[in-house]
Amino acid sequence: GRRVGARRHCLLHHPRACETYRGAPLSQRMRVAIVGGGVGGCALIYGIRDELKSSRISATLFEMGRGCGGRTATRKTRELAALTVDHGAPSFATRTAELFMLCEEFARMGGIERLKDAVGVLDSKGVFQREPIIPPRFTGGAKGISTFCELLLRGGDPLAEPLARVVSSTRVSSVMKTSAGWRLSDRQGADLGEFDWLVVTGTGFAHPRWTAIFGGTAPLVAAAEKMGDPALDACLNALKLLTFKPVTACLMAFDGAAAAAWAGLPFCKARIESNPTVSRLVIRRINANLTAVVLHSTHGFSESEADVFGANSAAARVGGAQSDAIREQSILSKMQAELKKILVPNVLAASDFVPCWGPHLHRWGGGFPRDPLLAAEHAFVPSVSCAFCGDFIASERARTVEGAALSGFTTARKLVDLL
Fold this sequence. Notes:
Shape: globular
Radius of gyration: 22 Å
Number of strands: 21
């Protein structure tokens, strides 16, 4: 396995023996647990970067997936070492000066890039119409869109270590309020530590969706039932009204002549016009012999298959959610068939639809929140040292990657104000 550095080993396994290793004693730090490693959680880390460096705050980020990013994660596979697939948002828009300037800085450092490839609309006959890229959009470049969250975790320095302890492939399944803070446990009941503040960056941990996916009561809801805190109860009552517009993604990769054919299409992302099954097509050339293709469903089609998550998803692999493999293949076949109607034979040949990897299914069940969103006044609950951030917090940029990032920055400022 990967060798763990002396400082990190000390902090993980012998914290009391190395209290002054990073400066301030552990007893004088604000200990923050962040549940969810999407954009909101990673932006929170970036927002408290100075406090993390000076040891005024220590943070641990818990993520169910293999890596951070959430909807901006980049999927990898052992089957094809070179393959990286942006299976959620392949790029994101920046409408605010705050995020635009930060992304420009990250781009100058070589981490992310301004999107320059064509985007637009694909009609039912495969005719593409280009659209202007307004406002500016950013993508992850050669390494994939997860580069954005990796930079946030490292305080903007691509060569630095993450500023927070990151615990991946872990489902936080229980939380309990104690006299000293919040105690977290995993799916097997193993202790994950005690923290002064709990920050929830995804809705499932405190929403009825948890019951539908994993069974039982959502962990924070279960904890709140024993606490009787009016402010937290008001927050959770507002949160349970939140619903979502799900999307199912069909993930594929092509090699050889098929890779060249897909890469030769005149766009990197296209909205698919007037189709009841598929809504968006994303193409990313990995190298001369490998092209990744992600086909997104319509919200309506995904809602009709609400209980199929993807056998390789974090929800199934780590969380224990059940998914029907036969139905998965049926869903993928329907989506591929619709795309073939659009592209074959006018744009691609039928032989270009034979992938070297996939198709694999991934369902984004909580990625596109509907109204009513969680009001900002409910997102910070100092009475129980609990906060929420993400694209589900009401704001002008809610429901977007940018909204999630700005929400993380806002939560960071509020935590720093308490020091």
